[in-house]
Amino acid sequence: MRRVVAIANQKGGVGKTTTSINLAASLATLDKRVLLLDIDPQGNATTGLGIDKSQVEQGSYDLFINQAPLENTILPTTCEGLFIVPASMDLAGAEVELVGVDGREKVLEKVFSDYAAEPFDYVFIDCPPALNLITLNALAASDRVMITLQAEFYAMEGLTQLMDTIRRVRANLNPYLNMDGILLTMVDRRNRLCVQVEEEVRSYFGSQVYEHCIPRNVRLSEAPSFGIPAMYHDIRSTGAQAYLQVAQEMIRRG
Ligand SMILES: Nc1ncnc2c1ncn2[C@@H]1O[C@H](COP(=O)(O)OP(=O)(O)O)[C@@H](O)[C@H]1O
Ligand SMILES: [Mg+2]
Prior knowledge:
Blueprint lengths: L3 E5 L7 H14 L4 E5 L5 H5 L11 H6 L4 H4 L1 E2 L5 E4 L8 H5 L8 H8 L7 E5 L6 H8 L3 E7 L8 H14 L5 E8 L6 H14 L12 H5 L7 H4 L4 H16 L1
Parallel strand pairs: 1-5, 1-6, 2-4, 2-5, 6-7
Antiparallel strand pairs: 3-4
Helix pairs in contact: 1-12
């Protein structure tokens, strides 16, 4: 694995899954080999890429609980260069079952270090909306964490707790974890509050914030119902174009 990026925010509905799918697909079209790991029991990244959760034989649950090797859980998607480890129905139980496991925060890290097949340029981990054991596993197994923030009044709420968690993971589980950056999502520049929130986030976090942000765009919310990334649904949409730009920015930022 060349770069493992956890996409995290313990708030739901802030664009984690939309970003996971569309950033992963954008990097795949830029000729990168990309894996998306769905570890949210809701499995929205899985269904958003056209996979029926009830048909999954081995998925992320099996990585956490059944010592399944990563290569047994990887499925191709309809997008060239993009692969997924799907979430299956039973993932909801993993959080509780993990509690009794030895080294329970480092299960995913071990899964990655045991992987010896063809490496991926990027691995994205779509985290659940919680700072739970599953998310800790993702942070312990990642080089970077990308935080998606919805540009609304409560955007920064909960961020202190998330930053504290990242600090604690760095101190206790994974000294190699760095911030990838903060990505603003669902931005509507016609909305004054939204513009203010963006200014506030940028003045507080400076260069940690991605220059490009993701506009509110209906194509991004429609695409999952077709089981495809937005760029395959409407490549010219502002949403698809924004994710392509963020992908290029991510490559540039190195
Ligand atoms: N930029 C956007 N424009 C319009 N709708 C969006 C955008 N980003 C996300 N959405 C929609 O908002 C909802 C929450 O987004 P999602 O990516 O699932 O958030 P999370 O994974 O953080 O819970 C979904 O219905 C999604 O389709
Ligand atoms: Mg999600």
